[in-house]
């Protein structure tokens, strides 16, 4: 009995027998050519046509979908398929032209949390490394919906996916002044603080990465971070078991410390205690574990240098650069201190009297 569908095994054998050099090349017969083309066309998807079909479903009112037996899982599956299609930048840019962008953004407000989360993930794929689509999403007020889901949604998975769409490299906020302004107006920094206090490690990591980017882009935002009490949360995260979270938190603390010309970024007893604990923890690690925390070792030493104007004990213990590792550049400390040094040089000796440092913590 013949199998249903194309005979792919037969096609593979035929292709190999005509391409491995065991037989001389020859012209295909009309029957072979017809069979081959039918086999291939049966598996060919007209992507634009399929995206139009998905768009029609997204445009259909919810009650009509329910009446026709379409479930939330069916919608998630369609969004999964759409995400695969828009991985192509050309297809991503075509989505707006065929009317699919606005209904996709509408799903960010769907009553089902999984659909809201999946829609945000599709938007992330759509805008990543794609300035035209980024602009279209901004024009369609997509950033506002994403910011609302990030800061206010009751489901942490929805919040995480929304933050991913907002902050992926580059996307709606990174290298986008209008996006950063919208983020601040939507109380995005409070959202980041709340994300750091959540129980989701993934949510915390995304928030830390975006926070570090924002502080690097605009040092004046440190005042916002200080007022919102980020430092205590960052110090707690700097002692977490998850290495990536620790490293990201230490990276943000370093940005805060070297951005404060008056030394107030290092005035916390808790910060010194954290660094001492991390040095002790690193000292007790096995060789294998030490190799996995190279960035953390460097961050702890750099933060100690910035705060206390001396190297940490990691160097004396031979833990800053392990045998076989590339040595750190001899001027690595001054490179880390470069923003602080430039600011000090600019200020010169304008004032002899220093005010009491304002404590961050």
From TrEMBL:
<dbReference type="InterPro" id="IPR013918">
    <property type="entry name" value="Nucleotide_exch_fac_Fes1"/>
</dbReference>
<dbReference type="InterPro" id="IPR016024">
    <property type="entry name" value="ARM-type_fold"/>
</dbReference>
<dbReference type="InterPro" id="IPR011989">
    <property type="entry name" value="ARM-like"/>
</dbReference>
<protein>
    <recommendedName>
        <fullName>TOG domain-containing protein</fullName>
    </recommendedName>
</protein>
<dbReference type="InterPro" id="IPR034085">
    <property type="entry name" value="TOG"/>
</dbReference>
<dbReference type="Pfam" id="PF08609">
    <property type="entry name" value="Fes1"/>
</dbReference>
<dbReference type="InterPro" id="IPR050693">
    <property type="entry name" value="Hsp70_NEF-Inhibitors"/>
</dbReference>
<feature type="domain" description="TOG">
    <location>
        <begin position="46"/>
        <end position="288"/>
    </location>
</feature>
